[in-house]
């Protein structure tokens, strides 16, 4: 009974049964000792024939009194513990209040610091403008205008001029003038691809890369896409359907569309889903159907209807390739008078291979007048004169045209790569610009690449040797940082004839290792497997799988990246190679085959000028010899290449903003 009562009391007191408080343990032991003594005495008395009943009664009363005292003591302990618990809760609440107060103060302090930094930046800009006046760079009238620009665009100024301390007065003035002239553009891209939602070719990375670069510099960019059934929406945030239906014109009637909106990489994206013509984009592929003209003409018209009816007034409608080139004629013939008088049209062409030739009467499907457009100076095809050329219509009706080409000049493109559009391009030559593609330097940067065992930069290349040894170890090649390692990424473009195999064989005799990444082309993979077998698996590895981490390591660990050409817009291989300190060398079985195409070119891109002077003259064997014979000179060449910026934020951005700026005054 005693143990049960003790357990109950201790439980009420809030103590574990297995570990009661020490003073309670002592009290219990003392009472047990007394009880045992009394019990022993009682036993003896009973044996001696004493008054057993009276003695037992006294013992029970004493035991009862002891238990009652113990119970009262337990109650006092419970009350004390409750009081202590209340004190502890109050202390905890007080600590939480103090913690929240501290966090609030920290947030306020950070806000003040941000505001202080922004104010410091604005004042530093204003003081630099004062300095420009005093040194005679600008007059007082221009200075007044620049000051108004700075104070009137405080948010954009903080984003654009964050690197003010690294700029000379002349550089800062050029940037201020550019900023003052352009202010902020509102650009709507009407296109058929966007990474990572839907990607077929180079257009997808171009749309995303350029849009991110533009928004980073303070411009507002929106993208309109068809709502394909094959869209990958995993990276789209806030996807929702707009409740109101959008009606657009097609084939003589108005048809309903569902409109979806969301955010991708900070870019606002609108998806258009036809209802009546639901089969247009409910297919496995993006391109390659007999009704592609109808599909993308419907989308182009619906995009313009959406822009007009939503009250948007963008500065630029940016359209791409033939699929949305029809926006040009539609805009100027129908939509410019619907509140879009300040909008201009820019067309980007990634190539002229696909132009879309159609019967003239099909133009009426989207509301255009076939008779007025089927003319030599408008949409009539130069060769097949009974047809209209949709891409030509985009060229004619756009205010500016950007041709994506990393290596070729405007003149070379018109004369050699126009695919029958040379007369139109020649007439509209003044509105043509050439832009290189770019790459995402937030993902592809060896100084912060999460996939590398050791990061490195142009100032400290030690990590590159570590990456090479790690790559060799991972693929089972002999580990030696002094061995020349050649990586080849875009193998689907390679022509593995006997001469190419001979080049590889000869290089391996000079202690050169090769890593080839597999292709979707079965014949190429077969040739690579055969080549690896012939080399007895000693100096070559063939990786026939996609492994993003390994891909980053190949760029970092390679001394040379073998490219089909320097004009490689899809995987941006040469651009990434330069960033990772690997020399891009063109694949050619003829040592002199490549050299002519960059010689004597005028108005080529900055990328073309750099690559032709630094690496364009090199064959694979020459590059290997330079690495081995003059390592210090080679190291400096690589370091110089790594600091060049060929990302979307650089020349590609500059070309497009210059086009937007020029259109603004038209």
TrEMBL record:
<keyword id="KW-0750">Starch biosynthesis</keyword>
<comment type="pathway">
    <text>Glycan biosynthesis; starch biosynthesis.</text>
</comment>
<dbReference type="Pfam" id="PF08323">
    <property type="entry name" value="Glyco_transf_5"/>
</dbReference>
<dbReference type="GO" id="GO:0019252">
    <property type="term" value="P:starch biosynthetic process"/>
</dbReference>
<dbReference type="GO" id="GO:0009011">
    <property type="term" value="F:alpha-1,4-glucan glucosyltransferase (ADP-glucose donor) activity"/>
</dbReference>
<dbReference type="InterPro" id="IPR013534">
    <property type="entry name" value="Starch_synth_cat_dom"/>
</dbReference>
<keyword id="KW-0328">Glycosyltransferase</keyword>
<keyword id="KW-0808">Transferase</keyword>
<protein>
    <recommendedName>
        <fullName>starch synthase</fullName>
        <ecNumber>2.4.1.21</ecNumber>
    </recommendedName>
</protein>
<feature type="domain" description="Starch synthase catalytic">
    <location>
        <begin position="186"/>
        <end position="425"/>
    </location>
</feature>
